[in-house]
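INTERNAL TRANSFER SHEET
From: sequence group
To: structure group
Subject: Glyoxylase-like metal-dependent hydrolase (Beta-lactamase superfamily II)

Please process the attached sequence and return the structure record in the designated field. Keep the field labels unchanged so the import script can parse them.
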Amino acid sequence: METCWEEAGWERLAPGVARRRMPEWDETVGVVVGRTGILVVDTGATLRAGAELRTAITRLTGRRPTRIAFTHPHFDHVLGSAAFAGCEVYGATGVDELLRREREALREDAIRHGVGRGAATEAVDHLVGPHHLVSGELTLDLGDRPVLLANVGPGHTAHDLAVLVPGRPEVVFCGDLVEESGTPQAGPDAIPGHWPAALGRLLALGGEDALYVPGHGSVVDAAFVRAQRDELAARFGVST
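Return from structure group:
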């Protein structure tokens, strides 16, 4: 029987695939349910948020999550990781070193954006980095369904990972390579000259009929991603 995601405040995207737009920073957290495993895409901005997500997913599915994929290493997408004890964590190549090296910067970024100092310190101190790194593509087996992790960056950061869930429709979790609720944010760790090409790789990955799930905002289609790619190319003066 299909889980009633909507009744619990989630958005059902496809059978066994849902996402939640988190309060405060509107970051997307995704979940993919397979027969033998459950993948969580990003983990929220604090340990408390991560714990609430873990509890909700466990209640809705009757099972604990088993794997986590980080779409990129910003505080609102990774700092809930320690709440998912026992999960195998996946990220783009190099994100493990960055999270070890830049923990103080990560903490200060969280505080600057409104996370309480104590909550930010606790989450950074207990942050669980990736156990598995993706340099190209990696397929996870969740039992009755494969899920593809694809290192499509750099772009929004140097370590952008997309998650493709095959099916009808196909679902692509884009992280902050795509934003619908505002202009894509190019912080000091963005690689603007490569961002449009990363969106081209996203489009090749999902195709014309996929649902594209942005890091912030409503689910979009291929035409939206294509338009955002062209806008970024014009903004940063690069070709598509």
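Handover comment: The first strand starts at residue 11 and ends at 14. The mean pLDDT is 95.
Transfer complete.
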